[in-house]
Design a protein that fits this description.
The complex is a heterodimer of chains A (about 325) and B (about 210).
Chain A (H helix, E strand, L loop, with lengths): L10 H12 L4 E4 L9 E4 L9 E8 L10 E2 L4 E7 L5 H11 L5 E6 L2 H16 L4 E6 L19 H14 L4 H13 L1 E7 L19 E4 L10 E4 L3 H15 L7 E8 L5 H17 L3 E8 L9 E8 L2 H8 L2 E3 L3 E2 L1
Chain B lengths: L3 E2 L4 H13 L1 H11 L4 H16 L6 H15 L4 H16 L4 E2 L1 H18 L10 H16 L4 H18 L23 H20 L2
Antiparallel strand pairs in B: 1-2
Classes of the chains: A alpha/beta (about 325), B mainly alpha (about 210).
């Protein structure tokens, strides 16, 4: 393992130090609690008085998620956990405080057991301080549970659309309930699937914690290497696109005439040029089905350390979601003018 | 009837800290088989932070449990921070004002820890989690208290109940946590949380036996 590291145990705090220095026009590090020495990442102008605060958070190693979506018209603050491990309850609480503009806070996060527990506790602590927090839990990963158990599905790259739409609704002056409804609609309209080509390595562990054999790929893999639905021989980009579309489209289901937003994200170590090869194939398949792509995003939007592979997210649009998606934004992970 | 003096908490808490420190590598290895391999690292980090905070100072058993729980909840995060944080803080609250921890009171402490855990997780016995260790340990102490058994003998029974509970997770299929994604593939391997819970309860029992008066 050849990596750019000092002490791997300190990688999260050292990464944060560089991140806030580099993006000081967008974010700041807020440290208000001795119980959370790491602090939280907040937008430079947070909290904004009179606006619903939008908060997210999660384990580290998924750059640009989660801190990379803090900024103008997306999230106001993000709690930062260890690699692949939920932030603490106090970290979420501090993020709520950093985002609180007096109109309540919407906490939009992914469906993982640690995040669920810590958010739940943080919401209780916030209530004691008189701060109202409502939540939306992302569950867009089709491969992680059958459709009749959608509440068990994990949250993956669809979270970016959830933050984009929820954040835009808050920026337009929406109430807490309206922000929650917009974010919930966005994630309910998202379906995602991933294909993994190699495993990922936690820097402090030093070796991959699962295996994908050379010459094979895993369809439906999760953001932490959670097993997918099928391991099969490595295929061409066109065949991969077909597999992804075959998982994602029938689940919602997306049909001819639908307008959608498409997001293809690399998992960390796949060259971006390959993502465009994959995207072109996906676009052809969607067009052939009569599905109209309104907006498309290709890049490393939500990664998994050094895993090779990609995820596909498709979101069904209506007028409200189009309007929210179109709003300008400026964050490290997504800038739209 | 013998009791544990609440004011003599230090040796009990230190035994728990040392046991986790000694098993850092082992817990990491167990977790690496079906989890992400960071359980030993995270537990060691939290328990060591508490140990450093305690330093040379004295603590009551109940205050020590509360402080340990607070450190885990506030500094560790992940799933294990809130899980062990809740168990220890609820155990502390249950009989925190008592000078003498009787066997019956210890049973109520364990039950409060288990009830607190049930408030934040859906797992129950048989789901391949630390509940499979904590539940039988709690039942054993309550039964021993009801039967009027000797405290030291009851602690030995609790140690073997925790051990048996932990070993039972080997044949179970994970329903919660990261291992749940493996389904049937999670069989044949111990659950890391059940393993650390067993180590903690056994160290707690050994520490309490030393502190019996």
């Amino acid at each position: 393992m050849q990596r750019i590291l000092n002490n791997p145990d300190n990688i999260v705090d050292e990464m944060l130090a560089g991140f806030v220095k580099c993006h000081s026009d967008i974010v700041k590090l807020v440290k208000t609690s001795e119980d959370n020495p790491r602090g939280v990442v907040a937008a430079v102008d947070a909290p904004k008085a009179g606006k619903v605060g939008v908060v997210t958070g999660g384990g580290s190693g998924h750059k640009p998620a989660f801190v990379g979506y803090v900024g103008k018209n997306m999230c106001d603050a993000a709690a930062v956990g260890e690699i692949c491990s939920s932030p603490t309850a106090v970290a979420f609480l501090e993020a709520f405080r950093a985002a609180d503009g007096g109109q309540g806070v919407a906490c939009l996060y992914g469906n993982y057991s640690g995040d669920n527990m810590n958010v739940k506790m943080a919401v209780k602590m916030a209530k004691r301080e008189g701060l109202t927090v409502k939540t939306v839990v992302a569950n867009d990963d089709v491969a992680s549970a059958p459709k009749d158990q959608r509440e068990k599905r994990r949250g993956v790259a669809g979270e970016i659309f959830m933050w984009k739409c929820g954040g835009a609704k808050a920026a337009k002056g929406g109430s807490l309930d309206e922000v929650i409804a917009a974010a919930q609609k966005a994630i309910d309209n998202c379906r995602s699937v991933g294909i993994g080509l190699t495993p990922c390595t936690l820097p402090a562990v030093g070796h991959p914690n699962f295996e994908i054999k050379d010459g094979t790929m895993e369809v439906g893999i999760g953001h932490h290497g959670e097993p997918g639905i099928e391991v099969c021989p490595l295929e061409t980009a066109a065949q991969m696109a077909q597999r992804m579309v075959d998982v994602v489209l029938p689940d919602y289901p997306f049909e001819s005439g639908d307008e959608v937003a498409v997001l293809v994200s690399g998992l960390g170590a796949t060259p971006v040029m390959e993502l465009y090869v994959l995207y072109d194939e996906i676009d052809k398949l969607l067009a052939a089905k009569g599905i109209k792509t309104y907006r498309r995003y290709v890049g490393n939007y939500f990664t998994s350390l050094d895993m090779m592979g990609a995820t596909l997210t498709v979101m069904k649009l209506d007028d409200e979601l189009k309007d929210l998606l179109d709003m300008e934004t400026h964050t490290m992970g997504l800038t739209q003018v | 009837m013998s009791v544990v003096k609440n004011e003599n908490g230090r040796p009990i808490l230190l035994a728990m800290v040392k046991a986790i420190q000694a098993n850092k590598q082992y817990l990491g290895d167990v977790d690496g088989l079906i989890g992400d391999g960071d359980h030993g690292m995270n537990m060691n980090k939290g328990f060591t932070m508490y140990g450093d905070q305690l330093g040379e100072g004295e603590t009551t058993f109940s205050d020590g449990l509360f402080d340990l729980g607070t450190v885990l909840l506030n500094k560790i995060g992940g799933s294990m921070g809130p899980i062990y944080g809740t168990i220890f803080m609820e155990m502390s609250d249950a009989e925190g004002d008592e000078d003498d921890i009787t066997l019956e009171r210890f049973g109520r402490m364990l039950q409060a820890g288990l009830d607190g855990l049930y408030g934040i997780v859906d797992a129950r016995p048989g789901d391949k989690t630390l509940v499979d260790t904590l539940f039988p340990a709690c039942e054993t102490i309550k039964a021993a208290a009801a039967a009027g058994k000797d405290f030291a003998a009851a602690l030995d029974e609790m140690k073997s109940a925790a051990e048996t509970g932990k070993e039972s997770t080997k044949d179970l299929v994970a329903k919660y946590g990261r291992a749940a994604r493996l389904g049937e593939r999670s069989k044949g391997v111990l659950d890391a949380g059940a393993t650390s819970c067993c180590i903690i309860l056994q160290a707690m029992a050994d520490g309490m036996k030393e502190a019996l008066v």
